[in-house]
Design brief:
four-stranded mixed beta sheet, 60s Ribosomal Protein L30, Chain: A, globular, alpha+beta, homodimer, seven-stranded mixed beta sheet, Phosphoribosyl-aminoimidazole Synthetase, Chain A, domain 2, 2 domains
């Protein structure tokens, strides 16, 4: 642990994370220089995570670092981009200890190594407010191939990677807002909240086989509604087809109203799975590209009045809250 | 004024700021796509401004928007890049009114028009903390031509654009921390704090004629020390040659210790002028490129033990605080 100040922290802990990326100039300069390979473009995405809003106050700073990086990588995955580099803007609370800052840098170092990324710039400040972490992530992809929300076509299948609702259940447990399941399930759900898995392994497959994609951050219903809206289509989504984990199934089995339970999972958010629109004849190719990552079909896009129509065993479901908004 | 929420604000006030930049997809997507022209690179820089730290609490949100954008454009100018696009991450305090958010968007719209920029993405959230605004700015420049801090050579002149210390004096007046001058001077100093002028007009000239550059944000002394350190040279800086405005001169004339007054101006920061290292035979060409923007020579880089040596009328000056640090 060092008692050094802002510049010491940047040079000792952050600058080494830029090694191997010449355009970052060792974080000693006014900015970084970056260029895609010829014929490629850069994909750029940014998310701000605030303590007490996007993660519980008192969260392990290494988990905050992991989460901040991963939610951005999830956006790159949804665009079909390969991750390359990132910027870090951090506002420390005045009472943050040196040990907390060290732990944050440890987490960041471990994460960027896992994803083959480089830190290329940022800004380190302090305030009277809560810890706030902004990551801006840069990906790369062939020019003109970015997967967008607005590309769904009538007849496309609504496809979901992995399982939905685990992160919300993990957060509810952290908040003491639900009864606990057995320890194996709880450990799985806690990790699903604290370590979202960006589906970068599917990026190239998406560019080739998906018409539209979004990562599930606000909630499956809200995010599929974004695709339907941007594509000017109606999406009929079958809640009973939504993929859930064994842990979520165990929670649903105890729920007095399993239909409402599924609505809560579908509106909870923080899944960082991908919600996709895929032409039926491309589904098998996409499954091959996905490898061991499960893909589940839970609906179909069609012409119509637009928006999201949710059903449960064939019956329409009224959904009041589809996801999270900040104001 | 609308009572709409987060998505309404983004679509109604922010999305129009992306018009004309196809890669922004109208801010409806997970991220933006950007590429430099063939043979060019992107310059990327980012700064976070927090209420009560980087600007006074209660500041006009239109001024906050202007300041957040301009301090980033100043970094692009120091790299020799032309500004193209930006990301906006904003954390609103929970008690921010719709009127404040409208005012912020008004300011942003006016500013980006003035600089020919497009908003291409970002993140809008709210927290219990103070207003925090992060801008990430993208510039463009020919590959390999970025002006860096570490390029100064022995014999180079230390050159300063505009005048130093005005923004600090403007802030001191805002804080009630000094006696007031006449109204014309005060209006000038207030504006120098609230509307820094990024020296983008000098970007191309810097690439051609300067060995090193930095924008003066932490303080002239701290920032020139960054150039000297990164270039492994000693800089002899003559405080009495430092350019000051007529308003700052009026303040100095009343100061009981004009030498200490100059040290305060040189350590104050927020100038967003450029501090440069320029070979003597390039000075006239750089002056021509600068047009009406004054350039002042205030020192010289040399081989030696390294670091910054400050003098006042030929006598060494001990400087305790050279600029601002956050922790």
């Amino acid at each position: 642990m060092s008692a050094g100040g802002e510049f010491d922290y940047i040079m000792r802990r952050l600058a080494p994370l830029s090694a191997g990326f010449p355009g970052a100039a060792g974080l000693t300069d006014d900015g970084a220089v970056i260029a895609p390979a010829p014929g490629n473009e850069l994909a750029v995405t940014t998310d701000t995570l605030v303590s007490g809003v996007h993660f519980p106050a008192g969260e392990d700073p290494a988990c905050v670092a992991a989460r901040a990086l991963r939610v951005n990588l999830s956006d790159l995955a949804a665009m079909g981009a390969q991750a390359r580099a990132y910027l870090l803007n951090i506002v420390w609370p005045h009472d943050a200890t040196g040990a907390l800052r060290e732990r944050f840098a440890d987490g960041l170092a471990a994460e960027q190594g896992q994803f083959g990324l480089h830190l290329i710039g940022g800004d380190t400040t302090a305030s009277a407010g809560p810890l706030a972490v902004t990551i801006t992530a840069f990906g790369e992809l062939p020019a003109g191939t970015a997967v967008r929300r607005g590309g769904a076509q009538a007849g496309d299948l609504a496809v979901i990677t992995g399982t939905i609702g685990d992160a919300w259940l993990g957060l509810q447990a952290r908040l003491g807002a639900r009864e606990r399941l057995d320890e194996t399930h709880e450990a799985f759900l806690a990790r699903r909240f604290s370590r979202p898995e960006p589906r970068l392994e599917l990026a190239a497959g998406l560019r080739e086989h998906a018409h539209a994609a979004i990562d599930v951050s606000d909630g499956l219903l809200a995010d599929f509604e974004h695709i339907a809206g941007a594509s000017a289509l109606t999406l009929h989504l079958a809640l009973d087809e939504m993929p859930v984990s064994r842990a979520a199934a165990a929670w649903l089995a105890r729920h007095p109203d399993p239909r409402q339970g599924r609505v809560d999972l579908a509106a909870g958010g923080d899944d960082y799975e991908l919600a996709l629109a895929v032409a039926p004849h491309r589904l098998e190719a996409l499954r091959t590209a996905a490898g061991v990552l499960p893909l589940t079909v839970a609906g179909r896009f069609s012409q119509g009045p637009g928006g999201l129509h949710v059903t449960w065993k064939g019956e329409p479901v009224e959904v009041v809250k589809k996801g999270f908004t900040h104001f």
